Amino acid sequence: MDVKKTPSEAEVSRDLVARILSGDQRAEHEMVERYQRGLSVMLFNRSRDRDLANDIAQDTWLLVLQKIRSNDLRDQSKLAAFIIQIAKNQLIMRQRGQNRYQHVSEDEAGEIADTGLTPETAVANHQLGQCVAALMQELTVDRDRELLRRFYLLGDDKHTLCDELELSPAHFDRVLYRARERFKTLWQESNAKM
Prior knowledge:
mainly alpha; Rna Polymerase Sigma Factor, Chain: A; 2 domains; elongated
């Protein structure tokens, strides 16, 4: 029995880039199909604006294709990270009110720092975020919801929260513990239903 090995993400990336460099337009379409969903999810999560996310995705594909066709992609095995980083930069430029078609150098695109975030991982992270948000809404104690959201999701400082919620540091720890336990119970109940 001959078992065919599934190519790694790096192998797929190198193959797509090589085919695009050779003028294969099908490879361009395959690249977009492969990474579009993850790109769209990431952009929407960062912008919370579907139209803006779609515009930035179009700009991103134009820049990515331009850089690949001019053989400017240094590490062809990191195509997904390259696409995501260009998209992030395009979104930042748009949010700063800069020209959305401004050229981005390879160094600015941050290709060197591969986050390892594939489009599939971005989708999984988005789905997990939606699940957590839904469970947070099920918490019956408003202070639990506020404390968990601000401390864990927004990264607010413990001392700031103590001052605003009029809690001593020791009392804060107890309240946070109880909030986590209530959320943990909801999480376990949710997973048991699946």
